[in-house]
TrEMBL record, chain A:
UniProt-recorded name of the protein: Nitrogenase iron-molybdenum cofactor biosynthesis protein NifN
Species per Swiss-Prot/TrEMBL record: Bradyrhizobium quebecense
Region (Disordered): 435-469
Functional description taken from the UniProt entry: This protein may play a role in the biosynthesis of the prosthetic group of nitrogenase (FeMo cofactor).
Bias type Basic and acidic residues, positions: 435-446
Domain Nitrogenase/oxidoreductase component: 19-428
Cross-referenced InterPro entries: ChlB/BchB/BchZ (IPR050152), Nase/OxRdtase_comp1 (IPR000510), Nase_comp1_CS (IPR000318), Nase_Mo-Fe_CF (IPR005975)
A Pfam family this chain is assigned to: Oxidored_nitro
Keywords for this protein: Nitrogen fixation
CDD domains per the UniProt record, alphabetical: Nitrogenase_NifN_1 (cd01966)
Record-stated family: Belongs to the NifD/NifK/NifE/NifN family.
Entry-linked NCBIfam families: nifN (TIGR01285)
From TrEMBL, chain B:
Pathway assignment: Cofactor biosynthesis; Fe-Mo cofactor biosynthesis
Pfam families registered for this protein in UniProt: Fer2_BFD, Oxidored_nitro
Biological role stated in the UniProt entry: This protein may play a role in the biosynthesis of the prosthetic group of nitrogenase (FeMo cofactor).
Family stated for the protein in its record: Belongs to the NifD/NifK/NifE/NifN family.
Keyword Manganese: no
Domain Nitrogenase/oxidoreductase component: 45-444
GO biological process, alphabetically ordered: protein-containing complex assembly
Designated name of the protein: Nitrogenase iron-molybdenum cofactor biosynthesis protein NifE
CDD domains associated with the record: Nitrogenase_NifE_I
Keywords tagged on the record: Nitrogen fixation
Gene that encodes the chain: nifE
UniProt xrefs under PANTHER family: NITROGENASE IRON-MOLYBDENUM COFACTOR BIOSYNTHESIS PROTEIN NIFE
Length: 469, 548
C-alpha cells in the first residue's frame, strides 16, 4: 500500500500537471458539433489549444471569452454573452461547453445565473444546450476537469427512464477516463461490438480526434457522440466506467436513469482484461469470441518473452492518477519495481499503487527520485524528455501531452492486443538501451576509486554518452 | 516605478511606431490593441507575449507566478537554441492553490525565489506576473525588490497579466521590464567599434547562428541579442553597443527606440529573410557602424562578402526556379515576417496568391505592395474555412503559415510549410534562404500528395454506378423535376441549406443582404457568402417587389 506524500516546496519545477479547464474542454471535444469555450483571458485558451494541437496534430475547436482588464473588473457577463452569440452565429454548434478558469473564478462570476439571463434575453438559444462546468485553474488538475465535465453532461443531458419507455439490453454506455486514447476507444468499441453489444461512448474522442480527413471543413468538432444519443443513454442495459475518475459520472447516470454500472479501474494487463471480457460475455450472453481467445494467448506469450527485459527494471513513472495506476500495476505484474511514482492530484487509486510512496508533485521530484533510486526506465508524458536525457535512461512516453512523437492519438494500451504491444514496446526500449549504452568495455569492470556512492550505477560507466530521449 | 496601466499607456504612445504617429491624440490614448472579440478570438495573451520575448534568455530562471494553467499548459513549447546554459528550459511556477488565492501568494512567491536561488543560483530570476495574482493584489514588484536585496542578485518583475492585452503587447511589456531593470546595469568587459545589438531576434532553431558567420567574418561583434541565445550579463551591458538592428519585428520597437534615446544607439529595422533583405541588413549595419566611428574599410569589405554570398545563394537557388514555375503560394503569417518572406518566395520563383497582413503595420503593407504590385492580395483576416476553400479549390499549391493553421492545409491535402515559431528548420540569412527553397521543393514534389488526394476506389465506383442510374435524362426533359433538382442544390454545405429554402426566405421576407438571409435561414454565411450574394443578385426583382 502506497503512502501519499504532499510536497512542501513553494516552487513547482517542470510541472507534470496541467490545468482543470482544459481537461474539461477536452471532454467536450468528444461531443459532435461541440464548441468548448473557456471563460477566461485569451491566453487560457491559446495555451490549451497549442497543447492539443501539438498532441493530436489536428484542428482543435476551442474558444475564449477573451476577458480584458475592464471585463475582469466589471464581471464577465457581457463577454460570455457575446462569445455564445458569436459562436452560435458563426459556427452553428450543436452544444457549447463552458469551463471557467482561474481568472473568472477569482472574480466570482456566477456563470449559472449568467446563462439563465442570456437564455432569457436571446430566444434563439432556447434549444442550444449550454453546459457549464466550474473548473478553477488553482484547484485540481486535468483529470479533475474531465471528470467534472462528463458528470455535468450526464446530469444535464441524459433523460430519465420514463421517456420512450423501453430499456434496450444490447445497448451499453461507456464512460471512458481521459487517460484513454482515441485508439483505446476504437479497440473497446471493437470488443463490445464483436460481442454483439451497441456501445455509446461519452465522450467519444475516437471519432473526433482520430486524425481522419473529413470531406467538409467545420469549425466545431467533427465527430463524437451526438446530443440525442446522450439523451437516450438512460435506456441502455449497463454502464461501463473506465478509470476511478469516472465513478461519479456513472453514479449520477445510475441515479438519473437507473442504469446499473460496473467500474473497471484498469484495462491494461492480463487480469483486468480477463475480468473485462468475462463481464462483457456475461452481459451480452455470448461466449468470448475466438479472436479474443487468440489474442489472450498472444498476450501470455508476450509476457513470457518480455519478462526477461521488464522483470527487475527499476521504474520511475509520473502520470495522472488513473494512468499511473494502470501502467504501474501492469509493469509491477511483469516484475518491474515501481521505485519512483509521482502524480498530479488526489485519487482513490493512489494508495493501491504497488510502491512505498506516491508523491503529488512535479517532474523535478520524479527526476530526483529516479536518480536516488537508480531507476532504469522512465515513463511520463513528453515533458519528461529532458529528465530522461539527463539521467541517461530509456524513456517511454505515455499520457498527455505527447508532442515530440507522432501517433499519440493511436497509441494503444488496453485490451489483450494493446497490453501485448505495450509490453513489447517497453521491453524493446530496454533491449535497445542495453545495445546502445551498456556494451561491455575493458574498463567496465574496473571501478574507479573516487566513484560517487551510487553503486547501482556501475553498469553505465564507460558507456557511450548517448541519451535515449 | 510606474504602474502597469501607466506602462501600457506609455507603450501605446510609441513615437517610433508610424501607425501610432499618424493617429490623433484621442485615438492614441485608446491604445492600439483592438478589443478582442469573445467567441471568435485566437492568439495568446500578454503573459504569453512576455514569456516568448524573454524566454530565450538562456541562463536566467523564469519563474511564473500564477495558477498551473499559465506555465503547466505552456512550457517547453518553443525551440530557441542556446550556446550555453539550458536553464531556460526548466519550468518554474508557484502553482498557486486556493489558499494562496484567499491569503495572497506573496509568501509562496518569496519562498519559490529562495528555492531557485538555493538550487540553481542563476545570474538573475525573471518573475512573471499573471492574471490571478494581479487580481488578488500580489505586489510582485515589492517581493522582487526585497528578494534582490536579500539574495544579492537581480530578481526582475515582468508585469504581464494576460488580461491587459494581446501577445504583441506582452512583447512590449517584456521590453519595458528589460529597459527598467536590466539594460545598462552592468559594463561590458571590453568594447569595440564593431559592437551591435540585435533586438527582437529569438534564435529559434538556432537561426541566429546562420547569420553569425558573415558578421564574424566582417569582424562585427554581437554585443547582445535580445533575446535569442541571450545571457543576462550581455543584455545588462548592451547599452555600450554602437548600433542596433531591429530584426523584422515591431514587437520590441520600444526597446530599440528608447535605447537610441537613452544611450544614443542608432537602429534600423531589417530582416535576414531572403537574399536581398540579408544583404540590405548587412549594408545597413556596416553603414551605421562607420557612422559611429568604425573604420571606413568596413563598407568595402561588407560589399565583398555580400557579393560572394549572393552569388553562392543564387547559384544554389537557380535550379529550383524552373521547378517552381506556375506554382502558387499562400502565405499566412504574422505581420513580422510577411514582407520579408514575400521577397524570399519571389526570389525562388513562386507566385504569391495572397499574404496575410493581420498584424502588419502600414509600412509593412507598403513594402508588400512594392514587392507584389499595387493589386497585391492582402488578407486582413482569413477564417480557416476560407483558407481551406482556397486550398481545396487549388487556388494555391502550397501554404506557408504557423503551426496552428497547418491542418487546414493538410486536411485539404495540400502542401504546407511551417514558417512560424515551432518550425524545425532555420530559414535565416543566405543559407536559410536556400534551405527554405529546398523545403518548399521537397514538399511540393512529394509523391504522397497524389496518393492522398485520390478517393478510395470503391467511392469512384459507387459514384459511377449512381451516375448510370441517375435520372438526369428524365430531369432535363421534365420541367417540374428540373425545378426540384435546381432547388435542392446545396448552398450552405456546413449546415446543409438548399437553394429552395433560401429563395423562399428571400421571397417571404424580402431579404436583401447576406446578413438577413443568415437571420432567416440556417445558412452560416461563411464560405457560402459568395453564393448567397449571387442568389440575391439574381433573384427576380418581381419577387422582391411582391414581397414589398
Amino acid at each position: 500500500m502506497a503512502l501519499t506524500t504532499v510536497p512542501t516546496k513553494a516552487c513547482a519545477v517542470n510541472p507534470l500537471k496541467m490545468s482543470q479547464p482544459i481537461g474539461g474542454a477536452f471532454a467536450f471535444m468528444g461531443l459532435r458539433g461541440a464548441m468548448p469555450l473557456l471563460h477566461g483571458s485569451q491566453g487560457c485558451t491559446s495555451f490549451g489549444l497549442t497543447l492539443f494541437v501539438r498532441h493530436f496534430k489536428e484542428v482543435v475547436p476551442l474558444q475564449t471569452t477573451a476577458m480584458s482588464e475592464v471585463a475582469t473588473v466589471l464581471g464577465g457577463y457581457e463577454n460570455l454573452e457575446q462569445a455564445i452569440l458569436n459562436i452560435y452565429n458563426r459556427a452553428k454548434p450543436k452544444i457549447v461547453g463552458i469551463c471557467s478558469t482561474g481568472i473568472t473564478e477569482t472574480n466570482g462570476d456566477d456563470v449559472d445565473a449568467y446563462l439563465k439571463l442570456i437564455r432569457n434575453k436571446h430566444r434563439q438559444l432556447a434549444k442550444l444546450p449550454l453546459v457549464y462546468v466550474s473548473t478553477p485553474d488553482f484547484k485540481g488538475a486535468f483529470q479533475d476537469g474531465w471528470e467534472k465535465a462528463v458528470t455535468r453532461i450526464v446530469e444535464l443531458l441524459v433523460e430519465g427512464p420514463n421517456v420512450n419507455g423501453l430499456r434496450d439490453s444490447s445497448r451499453v454506455n461507456v464512460l471512458p477516463g481521459c487517460h484513454l486514447t482515441p485508439g483505446d476507444l476504437d479497440e473497446l468499441r471493437a470488443i463490445l461490438e464483436d460481442c454483439g453489444l451497441r456501445p455509446s461512448f461519452l465522450p467519444d474522442l475516437a471519432a473526433s480526434l482520430d486524425g481522419h480527413i473529413p470531406d467538409e471543413f467545420t469549425s466545431t468538432t467533427i465527430g463524437g457522440i451526438g446530443v440525442d444519443e446522450i439523451a437516450s443513454m438512460g435506456r441502455a442495459g449497463w454502464t461501463i466506467a473506465i478509470g476511478a475518475q469516472m465513478r461519479r459520472a456513472a453514479e449520477v447516470m445510475q441515479a438519473k436513469s437507473g442504469v446499473p454500472f460496473r467500474l473497471f479501474e484498469r484495462l491494461c494487463g492480463l487480469g483486468p482484461c480477463d475480468e473485462f471480457m468475462t463481464f462483457v460475455s456475461e452481459i451480452s450472453g455470448r461466449p468470448v469470441p475466438p479472436k479474443y481467445r487468440r489474442q489472450r494467448g498472444q498476450l501470455t506469450d508476450a509476457m513470457l518473452d518480455a519478462h526477461f527485459h521488464i522483470g527487475g527494471r527499476r521504474l520511475a513513472i509520473a502520470a495522472e492518477p488513473d494512468l499511473l495506476y494502470d501502467l504501474s500495476s501492469m509493469l509491477h505484474e511483469m516484475g518491474a519495481q515501481v521505485r519512483a511514482a509521482v502524480t498530479t492530484t488526489q485519487s482513490a487509486v493512489i494508495e493501491r499503487i504497488k510502491t512505498n510512496e506516491v508523491l503529488i508533485g512535479d517532474l523535478e521530484d520524479l527526476e530526483e527520485l529516479a536518480r536516488t533510486e537508480n531507476c532504469d526506465l522512465l515513463i511520463t508524458h513528453s515533458h519528461g524528455r529532458q529528465a530522461a536525457a539527463r539521467l541517461k535512461i530509456p524513456f517511454y512516453r505515455a499520457g498527455f501531452p505527447m508532442f515530440d512523437r507522432l501517433g499519440a492519438g493511436h497509441q494503444l494500451s488496453i485490451g489483450y492486443r494493446g497490453t501485448r504491444d505495450l509490453i513489447f514496446d517497453i521491453a524493446n526500449l530496454g533491449i535497445a538501451d542495453r545495445e546502445e549504452n551498456h556494451q561491455p568495455t575493458p574498463d567496465r569492470w574496473r571501478a574507479p576509486v573516487a566513484l560517487p556512492s551510487r553503486s547501482g550505477h556501475l553498469s553505465s560507466i564507460g558507456a557511450a554518452e548517448r541519451s535515449t530521449a | 516605478m510606474s504602474s502597469l496601466s501607466a506602462t501600457v499607456q506609455n507603450i501605446f504612445n510609441e513615437p517610433g511606431c508610424a501607425k501610432n504617429g499618424s493617429k490623433s491624440e484621442a485615438e492614441r490614448k485608446k491604445g492600439c490593441t483592438k478589443l478582442l472579440q469573445p467567441g471568435s478570438a485566437a492568439g495568446g495573451c500578454a503573459f504569453d507575449g512576455a514569456k516568448i520575448a524573454l524566454q530565450p534568455f538562456t541562463d536566467v530562471a523564469h519563474l511564473v507566478h500564477g495558477p498551473i494553467a499559465c506555465e503547466g499548459n505552456s512550457w517547453d513549447n518553443r525551440g530557441a537554441a542556446s550556446s550555453g546554459s539550458n536553464l531556460w528550459r526548466t519550468a518554474f511556477t508557484t502553482d498557486m492553490n486556493e489558499t494562496d488565492i484567499v491569503f495572497g501568494g506573496e509568501r509562496r512567491l518569496w519562498k519559490a525565489i529562495k528555492e531557485i536561488v538555493d538550487k540553481h543560483d542563476p545570474p538573475a530570476i525573471f518573475v512573471y506576473q499573471t492574471c490571478v495574482p494581479a487580481m488578488i493584489g500580489d505586489d510582485v514588484n515589492a517581493v522582487c525588490k526585497a528578494a534582490s536585496q536579500r539574495f544579492g542578485k537581480p530578481v526582475i518583475p515582468i508585469n504581464s497579466p494576460g488580461f491587459v492585452g494581446s501577445k504583441n503587447l506582452g512583447n512590449k511589456l517584456a521590453g519595458e521590464a528589460l529597459l527598467e531593470h536590466v539594460i545598462g546595469t552592468r559594463e561590458p568587459d571590453c568594447t569595440t567599434p564593431y559592437d551591435i545589438n540585435l533586438i527582437g531576434e529569438y534564435n529559434l532553431s538556432g537561426e541566429l547562428w546562420q547569420v553569425k558567420p558573415s558578421l564574424d567574418e566582417l569582424g562585427i561583434r554581437i554585443l547582445s541579442c535580445i533575446s535569442g541565445d541571450a545571457k543576462y550579463r550581455e543584455v545588462a551591458s548592451s547599452h555600450r553597443a554602437r548600433a542596433a538592428m531591429l530584426v523584422c519585428s515591431k514587437g520590441m520597437i520600444n526597446v530599440a527606440r528608447k535605447m537610441e534615446e537613452r544611450y544614443g544607439i542608432p537602429f534600423f529595422e531589417g530582416s535576414f529573410y531572403g537574399v536581398q533583405d540579408s544583404s540590405d541588413s548587412l549594408r545597413q549595419i556596416a553603414r551605421l557602424l562607420v557612422e559611429r566611428g568604425a573604420p571606413q574599410d568596413l563598407l568595402g569589405r561588407t560589399d565583398a562578402v555580400i557579393a560572394r554570398e549572393e552569388a553562392r545563394a543564387w547559384a544554389a537557388i537557380k535550379p529550383y526556379k524552373s521547378r517552381f514555375k506556375g506554382k502558387k503560394a499562400l502565405l499566412i503569417t504574422g505581420g513580422v515576417k510577411s514582407w520579408s518572406v514575400v521577397a524570399a518566395l519571389q526570389e525562388a520563383g513562386l507566385e504569391l496568391v495572397g499574404t496575410s497582413v493581420k498584424k502588419s503595420t502600414r509600412e509593412d503593407k507598403e513594402r508588400i505592395k512594392e514587392l507584389m504590385g499595387q493589386d497585391a492580395h492582402m488578407i486582413e483576416d482569413m477564417s480557416p474555412r476560407e483558407m481551406y476553400e482556397m486550398l481545396k479549390g487549388a487556388k494555391a499549391d502550397i501554404m506557408l503559415s504557423g503551426g496552428k493553421s497547418q491542418f487546414v492545409a493538410l486536411k485539404a491535402a495540400t502542401p504546407w510549410l511551417d514558417i512560424n515559431q515551432e518550425r524545425c528548420h532555420a530559414y535565416m540569412g543566405y543559407v536559410g534562404m536556400i534551405k527554405l527553397v529546398e523545403e518548399i521543393d521537397k514538399s511540393l514534389s512529394n509523391p504522397m500528395w497524389e496518393q492522398v488526394r485520390r478517393p478510395a476506389p470503391w467511392e469512384a465506383l459507387a459514384r459511377a454506378k449512381l451516375h448510370m442510374q441517375s435520372p438526369a435524362a428524365e430531369i432535363t426533359c421534365e420541367p417540374a423535376l428540373a425545378e426540384t433538382a435546381r432547388r435542392a442544390r446545396k448552398i450552405c454545405h456546413c449546415n446543409t441549406v438548399d437553394l429552395g429554402t433560401i429563395e423562399d426566405a428571400i421571397y417571404a421576407h424580402g431579404l436583401r443582404s447576406v446578413e438577413e438571409v443568415k437571420e432567416h435561414t440556417d445558412a452560416v454565411g461563411g464560405c457560402c457568402k459568395r453564393r448567397i450574394e449571387d442568389i440575391l443578385v439574381s433573384s427576380p426583382s418581381a419577387m422582391l417587389q411582391a414581397a414589398e
